[in-house]
Design a protein that fits this description.
It holds the Pfam family Exportin-5. The protein is an all-alpha fold. It has a domain at about 1-155. The chain contains 24 helices and two strands.
Length: about 475
């Protein structure tokens, strides 16, 4: 640096080449050399110092990317290893904190040339949380920075049971102790996942599911400063993969903190609905609402899938969850949308509530009535079927009919008492000529799904009833000919 200051650029380049070569040599040792030696001889400190240099930071960060996943070897002193790893944690924490400040509204923005370096830092942080949890959990504030994807995926995974063949047949060995050990590890990790941390993870996940290009910048709800996705990025498939991992995060939190997830997703959706109701052109602002439908679906499935301990029964948590989702459902049912795009997204939201209806049968009738109301709000016959509006209306009508199928599957036996009412409305629409054949087929499929929960006899009776209108056509002379 002093040579650069004296404008001795040729000499400075030689020094820079020496530093780069040294870093390459250090990285050759990073994967296997004892971590205590890397610390004792100042290599960890030196590489940490070089993280602040734009010329050397990538090479220096490569060192931390290599040492972060290292696990404590048997021949190393536990205290020496943990001490060295703790210094690595502090170095990377400082770098992360610096970038978080720089990326905040007050700090400006991260330069595009820094993205690769930031990615290296993130990968190193995840490796630390995955391989060296014992060096992090002592400080809950520090630990919150390490709630990264790999750690949470490990907490979700189920143990693989070792099964061996013996003379007495197949037996699972040490199953109980393995399950107990896994449960204990999960409990240790989950004890640090307090409500505030989970709430923040959900906030960020909800923001990052939406692409910037989908928003009408003048009117749409702001997605927040973390929004980075673009069409170009999604075109490479990266956005889809990233979003699927966000869904894993959402499902994980919903399974372990159902009240936090239920309240957070309900609160955000109601806020979006109110924003749409106050918007002069709500159909242009639908992107935010559309992005939240999958989030709701993942939360509801995770909480009310039947295997979750909070689903069903009369526990205090279950009753509180029912109150939350009952309030959200009430908001959805109160919407009087008639535009095809709005009707379609509302149908998707009612579908997403299907697993909840299994445990809240009182709301099933209201949902069915709403679906028929949405279907009737869309034009059945239009003057010019080839227009864009007509195509959207037809598509939305089919979507509502499909919603009947998905809700019938999810709500299970809760829908059985309403079969006659649905049949009567279908017959009425058919008599009035307000039901296309494709729509009748979809509703018929939904009806068969409902009947399947009542047994094979009921299903056969429903099938005969559905085929009756067709049989009346088949006996006509034109069909016979």
């Amino acid at each position: 640096m002093s040579e650069v200051g004296r404008q001795q650029l040729d000499i400075a380049k030689q020094h820079a080449a020496a530093v780069t070569t040294t870093l390459n040599a250090v990285n050759a040792y990073a994967e296997w050399a004892p971590l205590s030696d890397l610390s004792k001889y100042g290599i960890i400190h030196g590489c940490g110092f070089l993280l602040s240099s734009p010329d050397f930071q990538l090479h220096a960060c490569e060192f931390f990317k290599l040492v972060s996943p290292r696990k404590r070897p048997v021949y190393d002193s536990a205290s020496d290893f943990d001490s060295a790893m703790s210094s690595i944690i502090q170095i990377l924490m400082n770098v992360s904190r610096e970038f978080l400040v720089r990326s905040s509204p007050a700090g400006g923005a991260i330069d595009e040339s820094d993205y690769e370096f930031v990615e290296y830092v993130c990968e190193s942080m995840v490796s630390l949380g995955s391989s060296n949890l014992q060096c992090i959990v002592g400080d809950s504030t520090t630990f919150s920075l390490y709630l990264q994807q790999v750690l949470l995926r490990d907490a979700m995974s189920k143990p693989k049971l070792s099964v061996h063949s013996s003379g007495d047949g197949l037996t699972a060995t040490n199953v109980d102790s393995t399950l107990a050990q896994v449960d204990e590890e999960k409990r240790k990790i989950l004890s640090f996942l307090n409500d505030d941390i989970c709430s923040t993870i959900l906030d960020i996940s909800f923001q990052r599911m939406l692409k910037k290009e989908k928003l009408m910048t003048e009117t749409a709800l702001s997605p927040g400063i973390l929004e980075l996705w673009s069409d170009d990025f999604e075109g490479k498939g990266d956005f889809g993969q990233y979003r699927s991992r966000l869904f894993e995060l959402i499902k994980f939190i919903a399974s372990n903190k159902p009240l936090v997830a239920g309240a957070k997703v309900s609160e955000r959706i109601i806020m979006i609905i109110k924003s749409l109701l106050n918007s002069p052109m709500p159909s242009q602002d639908l992107a935010v609402m559309e992005s939240m439908q999958m989030a709701l679906e993942n939360v509801v499935i995770s909480i009310f899938d039947g295997s979750n301990e909070f689903a069903g029964g009369s526990s205090e948590v279950h009753l509180a969850l029912c109150r939350i989702f009952e309030g959200l459902l009430r908001e959805l049912l109160s919407l009087n949308w008639t535009e095809p795009a709005l009707v379609e997204v509302l149908g998707h939201y009612l579908e997403a509530m299907g697993p909840f209806l299994k445990y809240f049968a009182d709301a099933v009738a209201s949902v069915i009535n709403k679906l028929f109301e949405l279907l009737n709000s869309l034009p059945f016959i239009v003057k010019d079927p080839s227009t864009r509006g007509a195509r959207h209306a037809r598509h939305a009508r089919l979507q509502i009919c499909t919603s009947f199928i998905r809700i019938a599957k999810a709500a299970d036996k809760s829908i059985l008492p309403h079969m006659k009412g649905i049949a009567d409305k279908m017959a009425c629409l058919q008599r009035e000529g307000r039901l296309l054949r494709s729509e009748h087929n979809l509703l018929g499929e939904a009806f068969l799904v409902m009947a399947s929960t009542a047994g094979i006899q009921q299903q056969q009776e429903v099938l005969a009833w559905l085929l009756e209108p067709l049989s009346q056509q088949w006996i006509q002379i034109e069909w016979q000919n």
